[in-house]
Amino acid sequence: MTSEVAPEPSEEAPREPASRMGATYAIGRGIITPLARVIYRPHIEGKNNVPLSGPVVFASNHLSFIDSIAIPVAAPRPVHFLAKSTYFDGTGLSGWASRTFFTSIGAIPVQRGAGQAALDALDQQRKLLDEGSAVALYPEGTRSTDGRLYKGRTGVAFLALQAGAQVVPVGLIGTDKVMPIGAKRPSLRHRITVRFGEPIDVSHHGPASSGKARRQATDEIMAAIHALSGQELANAYNEVPAHNPIERIKQVLPHERL
Q: What is the count of structural domains for the chain?
């Protein structure tokens, strides 16, 4: 994919009021974004594809912990994403540092898990979209440990269809080299690429209440992510290994993954 030649949108474009996002986020974005761009020199393509106002869902592949830093740093507008609540629950100086850092990059604490926890997470993102904000999520559900692109979970389509939001597909390349799974700190030897695709209107697939519409919309989104990332397709869900027979049965039986 060649680099874009169209003019980049101005960094002075309309964005959510700082008062809504909080002073920590506003200050953190003002410091971390330019600093990260200087240090890591990300190659950014397609910023002109990103709507500068209105509800937007950034749907991305997921290779590394720093994906949730790469997207907000590269995006031309503020972006919120969900992060494990444990990042916000620490005590003492280290707890304060973790909480401040994740708040400053737009993270929102959420309990991890399936079922009701997954629905609660979608509800938090829906509220942000209703306010005209942008949220980022990973349809694969968790990081790919082998570099392949896994099948998308339908929560991304459910969210976009419910909120009437446009979906901007994102292809991240090289983040797994900058910070592989298990690494303590990112490497400065590698450069990442962030590709923003053209916005997708998934409303033509049907209402959010339709399982068929959610599946078809998710497949369209994943196809766009694949076109941007160029990853090998896994043609399977990226699921945590089952810990007991009941969980193994649930994974085998056909059911919708949010």
A: 1
Q: Quick one: DSSP state of residue 7?
A: P
Q: Would 241 be classed as within a structural domain?
A: yes
Q: Which domain holds residue 62?
A: 43-72+121-252
- 156 assigned to some structural domain: yes
pLDDT (tens, 9 = 90+) of the chain, 258 residues, equals 433 333 333 343 443 433 345 676 777 777 877 887 888 889 999 999 999 999 999 999 999 989 988 998 899 999 998 777 788 888 888 888 888 778 777 777 776 655 555 667 778 888 999 999 999 999 998 899 999 999 999 999 999 999 999 999 999 999 999 999 888 888 888 899 999 999 999 999 999 999 999 999 999 999 999 999 999 999 999 876 655 655 555 555 556 676
Strand 166-173 relative to strand 56-60, pairing:
parallel
Query: What does the block give as tokens for 45?
Result: 């393509």
Neighbours of 247 (CB within 10 A): 14
Are 45 and 1 spatial neighbours (Cβ–Cβ below 8 Å)?
yes
Bridge partners of residue 82, in order along the sequence:
108
In a domain, 87, yes or no: no
Helix (H, G, I), strand (E, B) or coil at 117: helix
Judged on CB neighbours under 10 Å (0-12, 13-18, 19+), 11 is: exposed
For residue 94, is it within any domain? Answer: no
Is residue 134 within a helix (H) or strand (E), and if so which, with residue range? strand 134-137
CA atoms within 13 A on the CB side of 226: 16
Name residues whose C-beta falls within 8 Å of residue 233's C-beta, 6 or more positions apart in sequence.
Answer: 148, 149, 226
Phi and psi torsions of 97, nearest 5°? -65, -45
Angle at 11 between CA 10 and CA 16, to 5 degrees: 120
This prediction has a pTM of: 0.82
